[in-house]
Amino acid sequence: MQIMHKTAIAAVVMVLLAGQQQALAADVYVYPAKGQSPDQQAADEGQCYAFAKQQTGFDPMATPTATSSAPEEEGSVVGGAARGALVGVAVGAIAGDAGKGAAIGAASGGLLGGMRRNSTRREQDQWADDQARNYQYNRDNYNRAYSACLQGRGYTVN
Hints:
Layout: H1 2-22, H2 24-27, E1 30-31, H3 38-56, H4 77-95, H5 98-152, E2 156-157
Antiparallel strand pairs: 1-2
């Protein structure tokens, strides 16, 4: 379950980023303002792609990758309950009722394990948001460089 959640988050981020990759043609509109031929426009767009990639270090045609690994998932209700029960047995044995101590320990351990798991999920969600923001930031920089290059070659770019 823990690995599935982490894998699911990573998969969602990669799908979202891949969607950005497919939107390459829709990111900017290029108009040949000085009557450039379709062949000339294709050549200029290819050269500006290389220029923008070199300037920004970002390649919109490459498969998106994460800039860091996702946080490890920690804590579980079952694992916390098991650890709590062991502690509870020891405390209960000292107090004279190991069974009652185990039950109290299991309940409190499960609660703490669940809290750690929720915290980890928030960290993983934050990581996914950070990855998406980082991708969009790099993509925006690339688009600015690409547009500047094409405008310098006499195209109107929006």
